């Protein structure tokens, strides 16, 4: 088919930020890196003179010199590398990270039990809110104190790493000078000393001459291996420079993060807590004002009801006579009843008096009769 796309004709995928760029973007092929050649061009004139003078003193036939050549600089690099590695290993950035994470957790979990979100704090009473704020503030202060201590230590480490970086540059320069002096001496021996010895051995055929030439060649090889070891040590020194800067960068970032936490995060949190407490106080004041308003309205309603009742009762009393008709009727009935009772008592008294007069007359007649009988009977007794 004419429209069929063949795989061999498929274009190579390409990425571009320019939609109108039709150029194909191909993957960058690794370029051949030219090896760095160590020569005296990296040295100052004074250092070059020092290398030339030192090279003249090197005796490659002395096994002890070959064995100890550059050992002082190697020991410095070894000790220095160990200190740098210890600094990397013992630098527990995770601890500071955990403290910062704990600080965030402390701030976020301030009110996690009762509400979601920062504004849920306003649902609590001011007393409870203040108590929780105090507890959180104590934990935050402890974390801040620890962070400040770590920040001071990190700043000390940064200054120490600066010194280590400078020392590494010095050690690197010393190693380079040892290597250049050694190569210069090795080249001198192999071009001016070893060939005549080899020619003499061939010419004389004596074993001692051959052994001397071989010993010199072996010493040159040993010295060359020693220089190779120094070059490896020099590579370590080269690698140490970015390692130091990497540790410094980590320390600097952590210092800046701690500084940001202490200067920005904590004051901001405290400001928000002040606002939360202030809003809670406002809410309580509003609640108190609402209760006062409710009580005032209730009091007004009660007073209105009481005024209504009192006014009605007063109006009733004002329209009422001094003495009720019922009272007058009752009083009149009582008076009439009293008068009737008095009349009855008077009639009974008159009746009793009449009966008493009759009885008194009878008693008086009886008394007279008795007295007459007594009077009449006395003379008869005398006779």
**Biggest sheet architecture:** none
- What is the straight-line distance between the termini? 207 Å
- The quaternary organization reads as single chain
Order of helix and strand elements from N to C terminus: HHHHHHH
Helix proportion range: over 70%
| Number of continuous helical runs | 7
Taking all Cα atoms into account, the compactness measure Rg is 65 Å
Report the β-strand fraction as a percent range.
Answer: under 5%
Number of strands: 0
The class by helix and strand makeup works out as mainly alpha
Which stretches of 5+ consecutive residues score pLDDT under 50?
A: 1-11, 16-27, 112-123
Shape: rod-shaped
Number of domains: 2
Nearest-integer average pLDDT: 77
What can you see in these coordinates?
This protein folds into two domains: about 40-285, no CATH class; about 335-370. Helices cover about 80% and strands about 0% of the residues. The protein has seven helices and no strands. It has helices at about 45-55, 65-70, 70-90, 95-110, 125-205, 205-320, 325-380. Helix 3 (about 70-90) runs parallel beside helix 6. It is rod-shaped.
Describe, in short, the structure shown.
The chain has 383 residues and is mostly helical. The protein folds into 2 domains: 38-283, no CATH class; 333-368.
Could you name the key traits of this structure?
mainly alpha; 7 helices; 79% helix; disordered N terminus
Tell me the layout of helices and strands:
Elements: H1 45-56, H2 63-68, H3 71-90, H4 93-108, H5 126-204, H6 207-319, H7 325-382
């Amino acid at each position: 088919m004419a429209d069929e796309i063949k795989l061999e004709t498929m274009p190579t995928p390409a990425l571009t930020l320019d939609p109108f760029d039709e150029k194909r973007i191909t993957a960058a092929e690794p370029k051949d890196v030219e090896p760095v050649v160590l020569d005296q061009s990296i040295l100052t004139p004074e250092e070059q003179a020092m290398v030339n003078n030192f090279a003249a003193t090197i005796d490659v036939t002395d096994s002890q010199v070959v064995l100890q050549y550059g050992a002082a600089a190697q020991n410095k690099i070894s000790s220095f590398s160990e200190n740098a590695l210890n600094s990397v290993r013992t630098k527990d950035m995770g601890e500071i990270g955990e403290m910062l994470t704990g600080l965030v957790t402390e701030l976020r979990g301030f009110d996690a039990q009762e509400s979601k979100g920062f504004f849920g704090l306003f649902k609590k009473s001011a007393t409870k809110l203040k108590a929780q704020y105090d507890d959180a503030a104590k934990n935050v202060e402890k974390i801040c104190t620890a962070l400040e201590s770590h920040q001071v230590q990190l700043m000390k480490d940064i200054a120490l790493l600066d010194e280590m970086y400078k020392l590494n540059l010095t050690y690197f320069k010393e190693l380079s000078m040892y290597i250049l002096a050694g190569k210069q001496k090795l080249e001198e021996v192999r071009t001016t000393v070893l060939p005549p010895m080899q020619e003499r051995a061939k010419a004389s055929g004596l074993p001692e001459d051959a052994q001397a030439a071989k010993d010199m060649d072996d010493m040159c090889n040993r010295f060359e291996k020693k220089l190779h070891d120094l070059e490896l040590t020099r590579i370590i020194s080269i690698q140490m420079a970015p390692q130091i800067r990497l540790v410094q960068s980590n320390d600097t970032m952590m210092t800046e993060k701690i500084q940001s936490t202490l200067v920005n995060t904590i004051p901001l949190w405290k400001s928000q807590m002040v606002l939360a407490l202030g809003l809670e106080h406002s809410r309580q004041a509003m609640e108190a004002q609402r209760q006062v308003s409710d009580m005032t309205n209730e009091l007004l309603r009660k007073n209105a009801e009481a005024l209504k009742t009192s006014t009605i009762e007063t109006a009733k009393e004002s329209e009422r006579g001094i003495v009720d008709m019922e009272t007058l009727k009752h009083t009149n009935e009582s008076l009439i009843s009293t008068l009737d009772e008095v009349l009855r008592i008077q009639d009974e008294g008159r009746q009793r008096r009449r009966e008493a007069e009759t009885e008194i007359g009878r008693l008086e007649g009886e008394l007279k009769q008795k007295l007459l009988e007594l009077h009449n009977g006395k003379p008869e007794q005398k006779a």
